[in-house]
Write a structure and sequence with these properties.
By secondary structure, the chain is an alpha+beta fold. It is built from four helices and 23 strands. The longest helix is centred in the first third of the chain and has 22 residues, at about 5-25.
């Protein structure tokens, strides 16, 4: 048996108290709190420079959207985010410290992501320019996501359109791409997104598609169950930029949410908005249907960031974005 000296016996409780305080301080640190609050696909990647921070997830799944945030103690009047060779201007906001005690900071927030079609996995750089002088960089790892494949039976003309319809299809594709390439600095949307219909998910984003036995591009949106005539609501505040009746999408609506973010609503039976109209999250913009290339009544809901079609599902579950 070892004997413990009187001094050691007095010191032991002090050491225990110090260790306990250290654990409590570590648990309350901002870095650990960020990890605890991280959403799926998030983890914290931080880049610092010239009094500013660029925060983004450390990794994300292929096709998953994610938030990029810049904060600076030094004022900046403009900001631009660049990701995978595409850019968008960002709205700069002056944010007061919590309880009015912390110093004022300047902030810009962006929503970006990758497309399951045409984006490779691996390390990708995010770049944010502040004004004319400061540039922040961060790296995010895009990981592969395993998704199933489904087979559908459609009308033959919806898989291999007749030659007479090809010019129409090409024109509609060009029109949609031109809309999704637009960017504006005004941040109109808030997170989380509102679910456009309450119905269950019937086909997920990124799922492989075999149409009439022929492999086709993966599904780049969500199919949500909805009866003909069921109201469809806007997922976020924005401005209607396209109301069309397309060969594949049927009656459709495109809404601009600012900073290169758009939502899309396909296969509608009726549209209840016009081009240029402002809409609020939760406002009825149309009625569900089965127009265009559709096997039954439902809503195809899509989201685009910087011209890339991303998975809308995570946007329903994000923490509130002020």
């Amino acid at each position: 048996m070892h004997r413990i000296s009187k001094g050691a016996a007095l010191l032991a409780p002090v050491l225990i108290l110090v260790l306990a305080v250290s654990v409590l301080l570590a648990a309350s640190s901002p870095a650990l709190a960020a990890r605890k609050k991280a959403k799926p696909g998030a983890g914290q990647g931080v880049s610092k420079g010239a009094g500013a921070q660029l925060l983004c997830p450390a990794e994300a799944g292929l096709g998953e959207p994610f938030v990029v945030r810049v904060r600076s103690s030094k004022a900046f009047s403009s900001a631009t985010v660049s990701f995978l060779k595409r850019s968008a201007p960002l709205e700069v906001r002056r944010v007061a410290g919590e309880g009015g005690k912390a110093p004022v900071i300047w902030e810009a927030v962006a929503l970006v992501g990758t497309d399951v079609l045409g984006t490779a996995t691996g390390q990708k750089e995010i770049l944010v320019r502040l004004g004319k002088g400061r540039t922040l960089r961060a790296v995010i790892h895009i990981r592969r996501v395993k998704r199933p494949t489904e087979s559908l039976d459609l009308s033959p003309e919806m898989v291999n359109p007749p030659a007479s319809e090809l010019p129409r299809i090409a024109a509609e594709r060009a029109q949609a791409q031109a809309v999704l390439a637009m960017t504006s600095p005004k941040l109109l949307f808030r997170l989380p997104f509102t679910r456009p219909v309450p119905g269950e998910l019937s086909s997920m984003y990124g799922i492989g598609r075999v149409l009439n036995g022929q492999p086709r591009a993966p599904h780049r949106g969500l199919d949500l169950e909805a009866e003909v005539g069921q109201p469809v609501v806007a997922a976020a505040d924005g401005r209607v930029v396209l109301v069309g009746d397309f060969y594949y999408a049927g009656r459709c609506i495109y809404v601009d949410h600012g900073q290169g973010v758009f939502s899309m609503y396909f296969h509608l039976s009726e549209q209840r908005v016009e081009n240029g109209q402002k809409v609020s999250a939760g406002a009825v913009i149309g009625l569900a249907g089965a127009t265009g290339r559709s096997t039954r009544s439902h809503l195809h809901f899509g989201v685009s960031t910087l011209g890339r079609l991303v998975d809308p599902a995570p946007l329903f579950g994000y923490d509130a974005l002020p």
